[in-house]
Q: What sequence folds into this?
């Protein structure tokens, strides 16, 4: 059995997420500059600041990978090459590349820069790893849709070739395998393979009989749909649950996966810190051969923004169980509280809860085709056990919320406080600091 601990690889979409990753126990981070990265909507990083940020990370023994994971047009190669040289001069540990043309240019022009093959190369078979090994890959990032047996087979062959494997363990999933989606580009000229995905897969769609044509609800040709109409109810038929393999870390470590990758470069410091810390603890438990409290980790993870989650790809269940159904907020968990009464105008809610409720917590609910939520600003215990009277921020207008409505916690200010306290211990030097 392989006993080398896999690295915890955290997403960093902005400079304020750097200390969150470090404080969360990440072994490495991946980040993008302003061009040639698949998260164009993230704040990202300036070339002028890259060397300083890499020095900060290395000072905390954290590696830095720069993503260059978009397709590159012919006239963009000089600019892409300039960015790669900047990354090499800054001392990054590797670049993550999708475009094989760029891969070849970097091998020739920046030979000292290590290259990791992006998951967007759709690496799902050992034969592909053999080709990439001949092309100089230090690491391959496997397709997210693989089963555990397939990950094991790819990793075994990669080890024979002296190549590492990396696998996504947490975060958003694309409906198209390995992000090879053209829907956003066709619908609105925003290419996912160029970093500007509009996430059309997250829209509500409705399927109409008898043609069985799937149409977005925003389509002018689609009339409003009521719950009693002959048409199917609107739903997010193309939207996937988030991936969460917090309970499967030991299995991935056992087969020798070198890096456990967390998705989320559009998320903030609270998410980066909380998720990195959970996977850090899971890896440490595997190394120490001690039990890992999965239930506790899941409780913390649900307090940072995420959709319903699943380990479906790794388990081979990449079907309807992996899809997110918009009007079923329970998805894969039991409610955290039940509504007793709600006064929208006064912003007052009474609930029956399983545990403690504190200011800063957020709760989501669903009524018919409507989903909503509220943020707790004050929480007072009621007269009966489990009863709470809450002051909340809630939309003034909306459907009537019936007694007994299931409520699901989806935010907790405690996670923000934990992240802020941890980050304060590892501050990022200012841009004009003399030393790092």
A:
């Amino acid at each position: 059995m392989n006993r080398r601990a896999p690295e915890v690889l955290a997403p960093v979409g902005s400079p304020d997420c750097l200390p969150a990753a470090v404080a969360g126990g990440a072994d490495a981070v991946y980040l993008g500059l302003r061009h040639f990265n698949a998260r164009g909507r993230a704040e990202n990083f300036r070339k002028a600041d890259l060397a300083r940020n890499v020095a900060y990370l290395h000072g905390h023994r954290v590696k830095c990978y720069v993503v260059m994971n978009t397709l590159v047009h012919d006239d963009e190669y000089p600019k892409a090459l300039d960015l790669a040289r900047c990354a090499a001069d800054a001392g990054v540990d590797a670049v993550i590349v999708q475009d094989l043309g760029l891969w070849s240019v970097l091998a020739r022009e920046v030979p000292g820069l290590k290259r990791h093959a992006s998951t967007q190369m759709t690496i799902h078979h050992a034969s592909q790893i053999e080709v990439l090994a001949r092309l100089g890959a230090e690491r391959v990032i496997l397709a997210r849709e693989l089963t555990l047996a397939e990950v094991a087979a790819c990793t075994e062959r990669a080890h024979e070739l002296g190549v590492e494997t990396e696998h996504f363990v947490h975060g958003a999933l694309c409906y198209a395998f390995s992000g090879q989606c053209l829907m956003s580009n066709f619908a609105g000229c925003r290419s996912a393979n160029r970093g500007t995905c509009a996430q059309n897969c997250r829209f509500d769609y409705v399927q109409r009989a008898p043609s069985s044509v799937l149409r977005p609800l925003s389509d002018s040709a689609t009339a409003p749909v009521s719950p009693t109409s002959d048409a199917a109810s609107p739903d997010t038929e193309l939207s996937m649950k988030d991936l969460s393999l917090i309970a499967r870390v030991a299995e991935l470590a056992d087969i020798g996966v070198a890096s456990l990758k967390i998705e989320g470069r559009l998320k903030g410091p609270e998410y980066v810190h909380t998720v990195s810390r959970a996977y850090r603890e899971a890896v440490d438990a595997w190394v120490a051969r001690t039990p890992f409290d999965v239930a506790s980790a899941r409780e913390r993870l649900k307090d940072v923004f995420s959709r319903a989650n699943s380990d479906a790809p790794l388990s081979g269940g990449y079907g309807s169980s992996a899809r997110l159904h918009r009007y079923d907020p329970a998805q894969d968990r039991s409610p955290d509280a039940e509504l007793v009464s709600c006064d929208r105008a006064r912003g007052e809610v009474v609930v029956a809860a399983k545990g403690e409720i504190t200011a800063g917590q957020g709760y989501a609910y669903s009524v018919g085709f409507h989903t909503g939520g509220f943020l707790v600003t004050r929480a007072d215990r009621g007269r009966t056990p489990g009863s709470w009277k809450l002051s909340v921020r809630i939309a003034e207008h909306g459907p009537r919320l019936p007694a007994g409505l299931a409520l699901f916690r989806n935010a907790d200010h405690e996670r923000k406080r934990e992240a802020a306290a941890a980050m304060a211990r590892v501050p990022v030097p200012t841009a004009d600091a003399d030393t790092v």
